[in-house]
Amino acid sequence: MRSRPVLTGLLGGSFNPAHGGHRRISLFAMDALGLDEVWWLVSPGNPLKPRAGMAPLKARLRSARAQARRARIVPTAIEAQLGTRYTVDTLRALQRRYPKRRFVWLMGADNLAEFHRWKDWRRIARTMPIAVIARPGYDADAMTSPAMAWFRPYRVPATSIRKRGQWSAPALVLLRFDPDYRSATAIRRAHAGWAEPLLGGDRNGQKPDMPLRDRLTFRSIRTEEQA
Ligand SMILES: Nc1ncnc2c1ncn2[C@@H]1O[C@H](COP(=O)(O)OP(=O)(O)OP(=O)(O)O)[C@@H](O)[C@H]1O
Ligand SMILES: O=C(O)c1ccc[n+]([C@@H]2O[C@H](COP(=O)([O-])O)[C@@H](O)[C@H]2O)c1
């Protein structure tokens, strides 16, 4: 009997820093799509984002490790290893390196809203199925985006990803779930006094109301910076 292929979700991101929202959407996608695991691709640098305010890759990777604990989530800096920066190049390289795996690209609705600006985005769409996770404040823009107009004929239910024998791309799954309001921007803003030396400003001490995971996240960034 042929063993079934491993199904891996790929969540690319800046993770500046990683937060509980990343963990939650990954666990949710794993469950909804029947994924065996999710790899977090901690980006050396999003081609569309400014470098200013971006913590070093090693520090962001540490924050990802803190958030991924005890879950089937694997934080990686594989784009730095592969020497790729654009998603289209990364996905091609990953498929070459892991020909027996099946991959699904995961992203939040904010990324779907901007997807038409990514290099060779239609080619990305033809490379592997894509699952988009709802995100508060971005769903309307995502639904009216140029990429969504193109994807409309390729919309499929989550069950079609679970049925591993019927694999094709383009395929777009829209995943709805309880909105998660967390974002790296909000964390950076809320803890600006504390975190700014890492990300470019002054340090005033750790905020007492910071959730444990985020505290660990920022502690790991600080340790990394001081090393
Ligand atoms: N709360 C969330 N709900 C849905 N998707 C999310 C959420 N947070 C992050 N994502 C998705 O996770 C991936 C990586 O996100 P990223 O590392 O940029 O975090 P972020 O919180 O969006 O950061 P920033 O606020 O700095 O833009 C992206 O596809 C993004 O859409
Ligand atoms: O390839 C592109 O043109 C491209 C443009 C913008 C973003 N991306 C990727 O999208 C993912 C999410 O990025 P971010 O910064 O929004 O977390 C990350 O893997 C980036 O490398 C890719």
Chart the SSEs and their pairings.
Layout (H helix, E strand, L loop, with lengths): L6 E7 L6 H14 L3 E6 L14 H12 L4 E4 L1 H5 L4 H11 L4 E7 H6 L6 H7 L2 E4 L5 H5 L2 H6 L6 H5 L9 E4 L8 H7 L1 H8 L12 H15 L1
Parallel strand pairs: 1-2, 1-4, 2-3, 4-5, 5-6
The site of nicotinate mononucleotide has 15 residues, from strand 1 and helix 4.
GO molecular function: nicotinate-nucleotide adenylyltransferase activity
Enzyme class: transferase
Keywords: ATP-binding, NAD, Nucleotide-binding, Nucleotidyltransferase, Pyridine nucleotide biosynthesis, Transferase
Structure description:
This protein is of the alpha/beta class and about 230 residues long. The chain contains 12 helices and 6 strands. The protein has helices at about 20-35, 55-70, 80, 85-95, 110-115, 120-125, 140-145, 145-150, 160, 185-190, 190-200, 210-225; strands at about 5-15, 35-40, 75, 100-110, 130-135, 170-175. Nicotinate mononucleotide binds near residues 47 and 88.
